[in-house]
Amino acid sequence: MPTTAELLSVDEKNLVPTLSAAGKKLSTGGDVVMDFSEVRQIDAPAIKALQEFACLADSKAVKVVLRAVSVDVYKALKLVKLTQRFSFEN
Amino acid sequence: MIATEVKERVQIPLTPESLSAERIAYLESLVAQAKTAAAVFTQYSQDDVDRIVKPMVLAGLEQAQHLARLAVEETRVGVMEDKVIKNMVATEFAYNYVKDKRTVGVIREFRDRNLAEIAEPIGVLFSLTPITNPTSTVLFKCIMAIKTRNAVVFSPHPKAWRCCTEAVKVMYEAAVKHGAPEGVFTCLESPTIPDNAYLMKHKDVALIDATGGPGAVKAAYSSGKPALGVGPGNTPVYLEKSADVNAAVVDIIISKTFDNGTICASEQTVVIDDEIYDTVLQKFADLGAHICSEKDTVLLEHTVIDPQTGFMQPMAVGQKAADIARFIGLAVKPNTKLLVAPIKGVGREHPLSVEKLFPVLAVYRAKSVPEAIKVCIDVNHAGGLGHTAVIFSRNDEVIRKFGEVINAGRIIVNSPGAIGALGAVYNDLVPTFSFGCGTGGGNSTTDNVNIYHYLNIKRLARRTQNHMWFRVPNQIYFNMNAVENLRQFPSRTTIVVTNKALEQIGHVDIVRRHICPKTHVHVTVIPDAEPEVQVIKQGVEALHFYKADQIIALGGGSVIDAAKIMKLQYESPDADLEELAAPFLDLRKRVVQYPTEKTNRARLIAIPTTSGTGSEVTPFAVLIDKEHSRKVTLADYSLSPDVAIVDPQFVMTMPKGLTADTGIDCLTHALEAGVSNYASAYTDSNAMQAIRLVFKYLPIAYENPRDEEARCMMHNAACIAAMAFSNASVGVNHALAHAFGARFGVAHGRANALMLPHVVAYNAAVPTKFMPSPYTQGYTAHKKYAIVADLLGLGGNTVDEKVKKLVEAIEQLLDRLGFPKSIADLGISMEEFERAIPELVKNAFDDPSWRSNPRMPIMTELVELFRKAYEGRGQTKAAA
């Protein structure tokens, strides 16, 4: 059954708390789209938060789409093998 | 007393079985932190990186003394004051080297070569650091890692763990404070050999940087990971008689006592010329060294060198000379700086000839320069290959020779070895704390390890527009009676090379009439066939005999080719035709160069008597070598005639068959040059014009041989087409025709005609295999055929239609000229032809002509083309 995706805007400074809050609200089977257009760089805590968010999403069968991820951020995610945990939209 | 990595790290087992699950989890956490940090780091700009490096350097300088004190207290190796200097060199000097270097994004650009180098970080480095230079090595590696956006997991030598951990902490705090990713440096707690083994094999460790003894280096290189390993040295020093002895002795003492000799580039055996030996030893003594007696030397040999292994005793490493003497019971003056021990050779029977990382220096008296250098080679090979060597001399010849024969990554001249090798103090070597020892030391580099070894350097290679050329004789005279222009070429003696038939029909007389007055003229008649070696020899003899200064080649392609080769051999008697005929792919990169030195000079004037080969303007000549049963093709622009006279009066009597054959040869030249991978706007203009002239005038010249205009235009067309293919070359049609013509004795033009429609259709189709060509943009053969069709007004709306029309037009032209439709029409049976096909294909593929063809022919396609030519034209389809 088609579901409506939740759209989440994230910015560089509040990435960790935003992910943390979003993680708590994840409902089984839904889709989440995160808009990364305002994220120029990610740091180690953000990577850790994304890893945790990916685990949580997996456990609830939630598909997470990262939208408008910059090339630099995408490469960093690739190096820590996080790209395989998410879907990407340009 | 103390220990060193020398013995302890000799064998690092690569099996981490002894690790507990808890320890593995700990090691994994270190690598995971570093991996995340390295990933984050990839997003940093050059400015981001440089903003971090400078405060790190300042923090290192601030803590230089503190860290040096910690190092000496913990390791009990070396001299505190010297370790402060080392820490300062590791920070300040390293910074001075790296501060303006680009290490992010494009780091170097070579605009004239269309090349750019782009830095890619390596990722996670696993770094072993030594006991001898513990904190300085850590400081240096941290700065290099940040500058290159890498993360490092450090494994210090266990007996230098505390000081190294402190050094990592100083660097880490400064780096993170100024924006470096968290986890960028981590340091193993209580490192063990199994820890190292585990990390060396870890999938997320990208590079091992092992600064230490041979065991550590060997383990790093054996791990299967990319590794930077540096190793032990055994620095030979040649103190040559021309040297400034005072300066040399001071430099050696500075170096050998610096940090009590712990730098592996420090001097180990000084080979001294006999003439200055006593003076040098006296100078050492005057400056505080103890010169050992034979008895002292024997005592040292038995105490500071391990008799079992032949290596230095760890207990002596980094200790003061006076302390070592006291410990072994050698009586020396207080404050003795250095123990100087004369030795009589190198090797196990001379124990002090090995590496000694403490202030004991072996000296050797050499009777001559060769002996001295040989002893240095022996020392170099006794454990110091690829590392460091030193020479003191003012004799550049000796210095050069020393540099040539000693295998050392650093050959230090007239300066202290240890500090000289560190770089940036006494010379312009790159500052480092890791000395690459090359393959001699089992290393991958001989460099002073630096930032560039911490980077993957990517090369962005933009497509380069290769230079092209258009070379033709600088004087071409054409149209009826152009031969009159011969008058303007003064000559003492002219040789006319021609054949019997042309002499008989009066062509030679016409030429004679127009040669500059008062010229001695001699005629050399050669057979009307491709020239043989013997014919060339006779011609060259005639040129020498008459001391000719001008050659007039009057004839078809064979005569003109013969004259070209005669001129070559006359002007350059040493020219080796066999060598000059060596194959090549690119004219400008060919291995064999044609001679430029000329002992004789002669002007070559070519007057063609056929309208096809265009040999009067081409740089090619073919020679038959009967002795070896082969055809030799020469190609070089120096073979091109100096003057071409394209006078149609010499072709007015050409027979119909020859007119057709040579005319189609000319058309093939133009069509192949037009679609060649070497085609240019310059060659295209010639090719297109020649095609237009052939379609218009060849039928007329064939049907009405006395038509002056048609003959004239066809004669011009042949020359114009030749100018095109002289610079753009030909293609697969010629390769097929050469093979077929040679095998079945069919005239070249006729053989070309049998292949031509099939080859045009073949080249117009989408290639099975494209031919690599830097000169062309995309595949254009079909489009260029369409342009030809438009030029000829053949009609058609699409490229495919136009190609089809062109093929039809070629077929109609061939029909009109009376060419056989197929190979079968020549009376060659299918069986005979099929039997010949393997040889035909082999020879066609070996033929260099197709190398400029737009489509790379594969063997099966050559077979297919031959079979199509056998079946005949009229059914050729221009493939889509």
Summarize the SSE layout with pairings.
The complex is a heterodimer of chains A (90) and B (880).
Chain A: E1 5-11, H1 15-25, E2 31-38, H2 44-59, E3 63-67, H3 71-79, E4 87-89
Parallel strand pairs in A: 1-2, 2-3, 3-4
Helix pairs in contact in A: 1-2
Chain B: H1 5-8, H2 21-41, H3 46-62, H4 64-75, H5 80-98, E1 105-110, E2 115-121, E3 124-129, H6 134-147, E4 151-156, H7 161-177, E5 185-187, H8 193-200, E6 207-211, H9 214-222, E7 227-230, E8 235-239, H10 245-257, E9 267-273, H11 274-286, E10 289-291, H12 294-303, H13 321-328, E11 338-342, E12 360-366, H14 369-381, E13 386-392, H15 396-405, E14 408-413, H16 417-422, E15 455-461, E16 475-478, E17 493-499, H17 500-504, H18 507-514, E18 520-526, H19 533-546, E19 550-555, H20 557-571, H21 577-580, E20 603-608, E21 620-625, E22 630-635, E23 643-646, H22 656-675, H23 681-703, H24 708-728, H25 732-744, H26 748-764, H27 781-791, H28 799-816, H29 830-846, H30 859-871
Parallel strand pairs in B: 3-4, 3-6, 4-5, 6-7, 8-9, 8-13, 9-12, 10-11, 11-12, 13-14, 16-23, 17-18, 17-19, 19-20, 20-23
Antiparallel strand pairs in B: 1-2, 2-15, 21-22
Helix pairs in contact in B: 3-5, 3-6, 3-7, 4-5, 4-7, 5-6, 6-7, 10-11, 19-20, 22-23, 22-24, 22-26, 23-24, 25-26, 25-29, 26-28, 26-30, 27-28, 29-30
Greatest chain-chain contact: A-B, 15 and 14 residues
- Number of helical segments of chain A? 3
Helix % of chain A is 40-55%
- Per the CATH scheme, the topology name of the largest domain in chain B is Dehydroquinate synthase-like, alpha domain
Q: State the domain count of chain A.
A: 1
Oligomer: heterodimer
- The fourth-level CATH homologous superfamily of the largest domain in chain B is Dehydroquinate synthase-like - alpha domain
Largest sheet of chain A: 4 strands, parallel
Contiguous helical run count of chain B? 30
Number of strands of chain A: 4
User: In the CATH classification, which architecture of the largest domain in chain B applies?
Assistant: Up-down Bundle
User: How big is the Rg of chain A?
Assistant: 12 Å
CATH architecture of chain A: 2-Layer Sandwich
The biggest sheet of chain B amounts to: 7 strands, parallel
Distance between the termini of chain B: 86 Å
Strand residue content of chain A: 25-35%
Low-confidence stretches of chain A: none
Roughly what percent helix of chain B?
40-55%
Can you give the mean pLDDT of chain A?
90
Q: Choose one word for the global shape of chain B.
A: elongated
Examine the coordinates and then state which fold CATH places here, giving the name of the CATH topology of chain A. Transcription Regulator spoIIAA
